[in-house]
Amino acid sequence: MTVSPAMEPTTSTSPSSQTGSPAVATGPDATAARERVALPRRFLMCRPEHFAVTYAINPWMDPVAGADRDLALAQWEALRAAYLSLGHRVELIEPIEGLPDMVFAANGALVVGGRVYGARFHHPERRAEGPAYAEWFRRNGFTEILEPAHVNEGEGDFLTLEEVILAGTGFRTEIAAHQEAQEHLGRPVVTLRLVDPRFYHLDTALFPLGGHNVAYYPGAFSPGSRAVLERLFPDAVLADEADAAVLGLNAVCDGRHVVINAEAAGLIGALRRRGYEPVPVDLSELRKAGGGPKCCTLEIRM
Ligand code: ARG
């Protein structure tokens, strides 16, 4: 794994070996194909000290089967170590007893340009997490924090690219929150409708590949939203159901490296062919709550 903290373009395999075809992609993604650049990120994470599966608010959760907290802790530590080894900064929020899903920091807020759009959870089981994350930002010097009037689950349903923010709805985040976020952050927000309960948050069905492209599983979206994605991202990396079913789309890309569930073999191969450097991790215990690498990671964009 190579990291370029100096933000120097790092060259990967030649374009011809990526596709096996002379027809190369067009658009901004094509320019980047030969030079996938890793940019150092600032992440907020929450150690799963109180992790458990005690209720079911998505189809992945089985309170009878439960989950092994110590194994989850070890897997989470390995994820954090992977970020640190890639040169990213990881800050921590104190876990709160009685909030077993608080490890899923992505849901805690949406932070763009140093402005914080707070979370307001759909399910009562997670409601206390919203104010807890907002408080962390207050204590850490953030002043532009909006307490939301509408239900939204932070980066679970908002994914930020260079020009637009993609926003999911259908299971958790309300469309009114998309408008609220656009107004607070001053970025265009594009609504996408999720239709498969297994992929209840946008970040379980799609992830940004740098600032101008995405990878996604088309089956998670309504026909209209699929058409929107095809129009916006003609060069997108498409994942199949097998990759989606191991939460392979719940990945974190720094522009070059993609931290991704190891089981997503097809998607990992496709990313490699496109010049990305997959960094496989095992978060199988956290998947029992419906979470993966991205769910555990809130990006702080200044
Ligand atoms: N059990 C949690 C829930 O259903 C998992 C959240 C996963 N987070 C995410 N960003 N997709 O809310």
Description:
With 302 residues, this protein is α/β, with parallel strands linked by helices. The chain has one domain: L-arginine/glycine Amidinotransferase, Chain A. 25% of the residues lie in helices and 18% in strands. It contains 9 helices and 15 strands. It has helices at residues 15-19, 28-32, 69-85, 129-139, 175-185, 223-232, 241-244, 265-273, 284-287, and strands at 42-45, 89-92, 109-112, 115-118, 145-146, 158-160, 165-169, 189-193, 206-209, 213-216, 237-238, 252-253, 257-261, 277-281, 298-299. A 3-stranded mixed sheet has the order 2-1-15, covered by helices on one side. The protein has a 3-stranded mixed sheet with strand order 3-4-5, sandwiched between helices. Mean pLDDT is 92; it is low at 1-26. Arginine binds at residues 57-58, 61, 101, 104, 106-107, 126, 156, 201, 203-204, 289-291, 295. Arginine is lined by residues 57-58, 61, 101, 104, 106-107, 126, 156, 201, 203-204, 289-291, 295.
Radius of gyration: 18 Å
Beta-strand segment tally: 15
Order of helices and strands: HHEHEEEHEEEHEEEHEHEEHEHE
Major sheet description: 3 strands, mixed
Using the coordinates above, name the CATH class: Alpha Beta
Bound molecules: arginine
Put simply, the count of helices is 9
Helix fraction bin: 25-40%
What strand order characterises the main sheet? 2-1-15
Could you state the CATH homologous superfamily? L-arginine/glycine Amidinotransferase, Chain A
Task: Give the N-terminus to C-terminus distance in angstroms.
Answer: 26 Å
Mean pLDDT: 92
CATH architecture: 5-stranded Propeller
Question: How many discrete structural domains?
Answer: 1
Beta-strand residue percentage: 15-25%
Overall spatial form: globular
Structural class: alpha/beta
Q: What is the fold-level CATH name, i.e. the topology?
A: L-arginine/glycine Amidinotransferase, Chain A
List the uncertain runs.
1-26
